[in-house]
Amino acid sequence: GIPEEAVICVFHTHVANQIPETSKRRLLQHLSEIGKTRDIVHVYNNMWDGNLHADYILWGVLSEYTIARTDGHARWFEWLL
């Protein structure tokens, strides 16, 4: 139901560390499939590490960025931009 002209954004923190690795890989595969036909942004931490990531797929091309180092309990963060 998201309009075609809108960019899809998937955002989560402190959730993915509780998901089994196979399910995490399945999530990334779903995002990749969506990215073949739609622009999509994925902002997350605690999936593979505690860092804050902003990955995106524009025109079918994946770009991955670590944008901050973070404390697991949000006591501090350090921007890497």
Descriptive report:
With 81 residues, the chain is of the alpha+beta class. It has one domain. The chain is built from one helix and six strands. The longest helix has 15 residues, at 21-35. The chain starts with 7 loop residues before the first strand and ends with a strand. The model has no long low-confidence stretch (mean pLDDT 93).
Work out the strand percent: 25-35%
Number of strands: 6
Q: Could you say how many structural domains there are in total? A: 1
**Apparent shape:** globular
What are its keywords?
6-stranded mixed β-sheet, alpha+beta, single chain, 1 helix, globular, 81 residues
Summarize the structure.
This protein is an alpha+beta fold. The protein is built from one helix and six strands, in the order βαβββββ. A hairpin with a 7-residue loop joins strand 2 and strand 3 (52-58).
Topology:
Blueprint: E1 8-12, H1 21-35, E2 40-44, E3 52-58, E4 61-63, E5 66-70, E6 77-79
Parallel strand pairs: 1-2
Antiparallel strand pairs: 2-3, 3-4, 3-5, 5-6
